[in-house]
């Protein structure tokens, strides 16, 4: 008895259609009707993911993903066909038999960043059963747009005595790409060899970087560049080989704008006599012709006309009862005749003064 084996059916025969004998033989208790047993009682079930990603501008007919569903029924009841519901025109097609979701039109992330697709899996039973699911297709960004300045022409004025760090103006550019592809950084591309100005890479604020001098340079024509950061994605790659490979395929896009900066003059230069000291000779006992003309002095002012460089002349010290000076022309005249035996030499101290604000004199 210890070696005798008994067999029983423990599960899988709910209708008691089978029996098992002591020798392990399994037999049917009655005729089975296969069509009766294989009823369409199972719905298709999706086993593929509900979210996928696809690069924008990808070529048509590219496979996005394989949509897959299972049906535990047999024969026609387990045969599945796939249907993409289109209540609007979509840039995708779906293979009814193989479930291949393909690109059928242009994908532009800037126009549309994602698509929610309604997909139905339906068997061929009578009546058929179906299951509906939604597939989210995210469109990944490609660096296909340039930064754009608006406007492309800027102008500003700054005083030559502006403090270092003083703000001149702020430029602006936008890039409709995403992430590093759409992040804009600014630089001065040309027109400022002396680096008198700086620009914030992030904000586009232009500032005074060095002491300005109107007399050295009164006008700047700067070219400002706005560049995206697409290549930063390559630099972020951990491997050197990966970085070098990406740098050969990824190229930053850019735009340029023109910035004119006018340096406004301030009265920071004193008039300077060109030939000081001056020397003149006069005959005694006579008044020179032309209303006693003795000599003409001249001073130069480096500041901007008309006020900062308009010079007027004055006698500061000396015999003002014997000499006079034309304030506008600098002509010195003798008022009456001189006597060499009384005084052989006269020394006059002259002042040249401009007419600008913060008057300078020499």
Automatic annotation (TrEMBL):
Lineage: superkingdom: Eukaryota
Would I find RNA-binding among this entry's keywords?
A: no
Q: How does it sit in the membrane?
A: Single-pass type I membrane protein
Ranges where the Cadherin domain occurs: 46-149, 150-273, 274-356
Per the record, GO CC terms? Answer: cell-cell junction; plasma membrane
Q: Which InterPro entries match?
A: Cadherin-domain_protein, Cadherin-like_dom, Cadherin-like_sf, Cadherin_CS
Which GO terms of the molecular function aspect are on file?
calcium ion binding
Q: Provide the protein name.
A: Cadherin domain-containing protein
Annotated SUPFAM superfamilies? Cadherin-like
In which compartments does the protein localize?
Answer: Cell membrane
Q: Keywords of this protein's UniProt record, alphabetized?
A: Calcium, Cell adhesion, Disulfide bond, EGF-like domain, Glycoprotein, Membrane, Repeat, Signal, Transmembrane, Transmembrane helix
CDD domains under this entry? Answer: Cadherin_repeat (cd11304)
SMART domains according to UniProt: CA
Record the organism. Answer: Glossina morsitans morsitans
Q: Which residues form the signal peptide?
A: none
Q: What are the recorded Gene Ontology BP terms?
A: animal organ development; cell differentiation; developmental growth; establishment of planar polarity; establishment or maintenance of cell polarity; homophilic cell adhesion via plasma membrane adhesion molecules; intracellular protein localization; system development
Does the entry feature the keyword Cytoplasm, yes or no?
A: no
